[in-house]
Amino acid sequence: MRTSFRVAWLVVCIGFALAPLALAAEPGPAWGKRGMVVTSVGPAAAAGREILGRGGNAVDAAIATAFAAGVAHQYSSGIGGGGFALVYMVETGKIEALDARETAPSSATQSIYLDEQGRAIQGMTRVGPRAVAVPGLVQGLYELHQRHGSLEWRELVKPAIRLCRDGVEVQPAERRMLTLIEPGLANFPETARIQLQNGQVPPLGWRLVQPDLARTLEEIGTRGGGALAFGPIARKIVDATGGALSLDDLGGYAPIWREPVRGTYRGLEIVSMPPPSSGGVLLVEMLNALEPYDVAALGLNSSEMVNLVAGAMKLAFADRAEYLGDPGFSAVPTDYLTSEAYGNELAALLRPPFFLLRAPWNWGKPAIPNARRAALAPPADGGTTQISVVDEQGNAVSLTQTVNTLFGSLITVPGTGIVLNNEMDDFSLPNAANAWGAVGQSANMIQPGKRPLSSMAPTIVLENGQVRYVVGSPMGTFIISAVLQSLLNSVDFKLPPQQAVAMPRFHHQWSPDTLMVEPAHPRDVVEALRSFGHTVEPSRFPMGAVQLIARDPPNDTWLGATDPRRDGAALGY
Ligand code: DON
């Protein structure tokens, strides 16, 4: 009795002693009365915060963050890539979507990516010159500035130039990425010269100084959006791709303003990226399919909840494979797929008890073999960065930028520091899956001048016409599931922002027919999901890196949460 009392007392004492530690270890959200910048790249968040502090608006801050992110985490985005932005301006009360997606060069026809038997040539869309699509990021950021910026353009590039000159210390995440990619750099001497230290992965704390990239950014600061599209830098890009990209491709590129995709969920207005991204369409489709259900009553990450949500994911991803692509090349039924009527049809397919018994069912869609996926290792992490910003006026930007997989095509344009993307891999080839395991049909087949289908889902959620959430994530097809779960965690489960982004995630993309779960999901949940008929696989990589801003109405404050899956920062103002 006495002993057990002592033990109990000890447990209580240790509990009290540890409690503050446990609380301290769980980071609270950053908060700001006037604004917020959240991104997975710490020094880039600081650049955006600096611009807000100098009176810049959310668009200015997002542009400065975007340039700085492309310097500090070059593996994960940059001026050799592309991106999408959703912009809410209080003055107009409107949300606009900017498409700065890379585009297939005029020389890229599907046949050059296929062998004599009509099979996809291994790796051709992943590595080297034919993997590169015409970059759009610089013109896109310039277009954002032309329409909504308030500070001078050159001021927005300066923090990034400073990071190039002062150098950026190699952090654990970057070192991990370099270790993953180092064996592939043997054929890419310019990338190895800049990123490695005498051919070796540099130690933690090594300072990456990038004088070539600094000069390129100075050109961008002086010449604006056309700096990579015309003149000497354009010529160097053409040479670095052996002519796969032409001067006409670069000079002819233009970003496109598009109408965002819209939906509603439990009284909130969901606004997200339209095609050529699948992100917004699938997000709205899944939310519509889930709205008739009391998701919260099932319990957060319970087997029933995961099964239901995974079902919605499967249905939406099946539509992605069949219907989605660049709307400039074939009709995409966006309005139909995002309609409430269609959402109700999908919801009916998810109704238990039948659904529990038929988890692997394909809803009559033809299965597409994953020939290429089996042959190429899936990327262990990737080349995309999410930037979420709000400012004092209440303007908001959600910007997702990418070079696709780590260091894109692995080509750095000599003398410029520009890492070229491998966005050609986001197209679909016959009987082949892309780096993210995604499959597709004719809507997303390669054609000159076409934009490859993306999963990026920069999203703004409004409540009574005011910004409530700004959110987005990297990680290929996992992006859509990560954004969806952050919203479910916030809206249905009422979790504070930091927990909403930290919770373990799961993902189902219809093909392959596998339910992927982060290892933190409990064993009994995984076993129950298997008993429902799912093939469950623990994921070997983090599922996304969500950057979430939430308005906290009672305090009239912005809360910011950066995903613990990367080394980001949320900086309030
Ligand atoms: O546009 C897309 O969907 C892909 N290129 C995104 C790749 C990605 O998110 C890599 N992230 N870590």
Rg over C-alpha atoms, rounded to the nearest angstrom: 23 Å
- Compute the number of helices: 20
Overall pLDDT metric: 90
Distance between termini?
56 Å
What proportion of the residues form beta strands (DSSP E)? 15-25%
Structural class: alpha+beta
Task: List segments where confidence is low: pLDDT < 50 over at least 5 consecutive residues.
Answer: 1-26, 369-378
Largest sheet: 7 strands, antiparallel
The residue fraction in helices comes out at 25-40%
Ligands in the model, by name, code or SMILES, are:
6-diazenyl-5-OXO-L-norleucine
Order of adjacent strands in the largest pleated sheet: 1-20-19-15-14-9-8
Number of strands: 21
Rough shape?
globular
Q: TL;DR?
A:
The protein contains 20 helices and 21 strands.
What are the SSEs and their pairings?
Layout: H1 2-25, E1 30-32, E2 36-39, H2 42-53, H3 58-72, E3 82-89, E4 94-100, H4 137-148, H5 153-166, E5 168-169, H6 172-181, H7 189-195, E6 207-208, H8 211-223, H9 232-240, H10 247-252, E7 256-258, E8 261-265, E9 268-272, H11 279-290, H12 295-298, H13 303-323, H14 334-337, H15 340-349, H16 354-357, H17 371-375, E10 382-390, E11 396-405, E12 412-413, E13 418-419, E14 459-463, E15 466-471, H18 478-491, H19 497-502, E16 506-507, E17 515-517, H20 523-531, E18 536-538, E19 547-552, E20 557-562, E21 569-572
Parallel strand pairs: 17-18
Antiparallel strand pairs: 1-20, 2-10, 2-21, 3-4, 3-11, 4-7, 5-6, 8-9, 9-14, 10-11, 12-13, 14-15, 15-19, 16-17, 19-20
The structure holds 6-diazenyl-5-OXO-L-norleucine (DON).
